[in-house]
Design goal:
It contains six helices and twelve strands. It has 253 residues and is α+β, with helices and mostly antiparallel strands. Strand 1 and strand 2 (72-75) form a beta hairpin.
């Protein structure tokens, strides 16, 4: 990073510093690289450490930086695209969907999930947990709820839980003919379990993507996926390959 002193500007000093740091991140640093410590950065840019912290916190909120205990502040990887509203429908667990199964069990779902599945509130459903990783960092967790009628042959599978059972549940689900899927997205806050899985603090902003998978006019499965809001971006239709570069002057390629 350069040593140019910051000039007096109308915008807040930390915001101007954030712009200068953004330029440096794009031109001088690679993904995963550790930034110099706060004392050195503050000295290089001629600012108070409080101003520097404000700029770093803003860049972390924007998903450009990651602060990891025992490591320091590193350059964040590119955001993961979350496809929403695409015409391409597929069951979860199909090749190339980017998720890894972690566990599966029979459990009573939350009341709102039972309502969405149109099942009795005390009925057990197959609950599959999966996760998604980018550049070695967790970026999303998912809970997939599948009613027993959607996977009637599972009684013949020996594995009671774990990734093997999760994959077996998904394979059985793939036997059905997928009619369509419906997605809904909302901004939320990470609960204790999701925060731990995503390496965030409880209350951190997340994107909640709920997907209903329908076959023969009924909901065959319901997915609730929680994405880190600082590492993910939404993509729509055929625009998933579009990359947006958020430099000081916005430009698209």
């Amino acid at each position: 990073m350069g040593t140019t002193q910051l000039e007096a500007v109308a915008e807040p000093k930390y915001w101007h510093l954030r712009t200068v740091l953004t330029e440096a991140l794009e031109s001088e640093f690679s993904v995963g690289e550790i930034l110099p410590n706060e004392r050195d950065l503050a000295a290089r840019y001629g600012v108070a450490r409080a101003t520097l912290r404000q700029a770093l916190e803003q860049l972390e909120l924007e998903g450009r930086l990651q602060r990891r205990r025992g490591v320091g502040t590193t350059v964040a990887p590119p955001r993961v695209g979350v496809a929403v509203g695409s015409e391409q429908h597929a069951w979860p667990g199909m090749p190339g969907d980017g998720w890894e199964p972690a566990d599966s069990e029979l459990a009573v779902p939350p009341a709102h999930v039972a309502t969405a599945l149109d099942i009795d509130g005390s009925a057990l459903v197959h609950t599959v947990r999966r996760f998604r990783v980018s550049h070695g960092q967790p970026v999303a967790v998912e809970v997939l709820y599948i009613p027993s009628p959607s996977v009637p042959e599972l009684s013949a599978i020996d594995a009671p839980s774990g990734p093997v059972r999760a994959r077996a549940v998904l394979r059985e689900l793939h036997r059905l003919a997928l009619e369509r899927q419906e997605n809904a997205v909302e901004l939320g806050s990470a609960g204790a379990d999701d925060a731990k899985a995503l390496d965030r603090l409880p209350g951190a902003p997340v994107l909640m993507v709920t997907t209903r998978y329908l076959t023969a006019g009924r909901t065959a499965a319901l997915s609730v996926a929680t994405y880190r809001a600082d590492t993910c971006r939404l993509t729509f239709g055929e625009s998933g390959g579009l990359e947006i570069h958020h430099g000081p002057e916005a430009r698209a390629s």
